[in-house]
Amino acid sequence: MKNIINKKDWWKDEVIYQIYPKSFNSSNNNGVGDLNGIKEKLFYLKELGITTIWICPIFTSPMADNGYDIADFDGINPQFGTMKDFDNLLKECKKLKIKIILDLVINHTSDEHRWFKQALCDKNSKYRDYYIFKEGKHPPNNWRSIFGGSVWEKVVGEDCYYLHIFDKKQPDLNWENKQLREELYQMINRWLEKGISGFRIDSITFIKKNADYKSLPADGIDGLVTCKHKTRNQPGIEVFLNELKEKTFEKYNCMTVGEAPGVNYTEFSNFIGKDGYFSMIFDFHYADIDVESGSDWFKRTNWTTKEFKSLLIKSQQALQKSGWGANFIENHDQPRALSKLVKKDFQTPESAMGIGSMYFFLRGTPFIYQGQELGMINAKRDNIKQFDDISSIDNFYRGIEEGFSEKEALNFVNMRSRDNSRTPMPWDNTKYGGFSNYKPWLEMTEEYPSVNTIKNTVFDFYKKMIFLRQNSKISSILKTGSIQFLSDLSDNIIAYYRELYGEKIYSFTNLSPTTEEITIPKEIIKIYLNTHTNKVLGKQFKLVPYQSILFK
Question: Between the N and C ends of the chain, which has fewer C-beta atoms within 10 Å?
Answer without folding.
Answer: N
